[in-house]
Amino acid sequence: VQLQASGGGLVQAGGSLRLSCAVSGLPFGGYVMGWFRQAPGKEREFVAGIHWRGFIRDYADSVKGRFTISSDDARNTVYLQMNSLKPEDTADYYCAVDRTYYIGRTENEYDYWGQGTQVTVSS
Fold first, then answer.
1. What backbone torsions phi and psi does residue 36 show, to the nearest 5 degrees?
2. In Å, how far from its chain's centre is CA 37?
3. Cβ proximity of 97 and 3 under 8 Å
4. Which residue from 92, 93, 83 is spatially nearest to 14, judged by alpha carbons?
5. N or C: which terminus of the chain carries fewer CB neighbours within 10 A?
6. Would you place residue 18 in the very low, low, confident or very high pLDDT band (cuts 50, 70, 90)?
């Protein structure tokens, strides 16, 4: 199983970025995709999750209303659209797969991880 995250970069506060995570090696559907982030000196935290069919989504309170998670079945890819970015959103962002139907919010609930993609928001 491979997860390839991309789309990070440097953006000014108030700007937008879209992260992508391409998944390969898993039968499509029937699992949860999540995005986590880890800022320097802090623990990794849940950002957003989606059941692959897109019927159920969950967001951390800190990003609700600004970030949107979505999936593209045809491309086996999940996206994280990040709008109204703030300096406190600066972190390495990771995508992960949980082979259950429940959108977990803790790291140990996820089975596979991609490499991080760095997001830096300047004030």
1. -125, 165
2. 8
3. yes
4. 83
5. C
6. very high
Q: Band the pLDDT of 57: cuts 50, 70, 90.
A: very high
Q: How many CB atoms lie within 10 A of CB 17?
A: 21
Four-residue CA torsion sign, 60, 79, 6, 110: positive
3-state secondary structure the chain: CEEEEECCEEEECCCCEEEEEEEECCCCCCCEEEEEEECCCCCCEEEEEEECCCCCEEECCCCCCCEEEEEEHHHCEEEEEECCCCHHHCEEEEEEEECCCCCCCCHHHCCEECCCEEEEEEC
Measured distance CA(61)–CA(88) in Å, rounded: 13
Nearest by Cα to 32 from 80, 103, 89, 92: 103
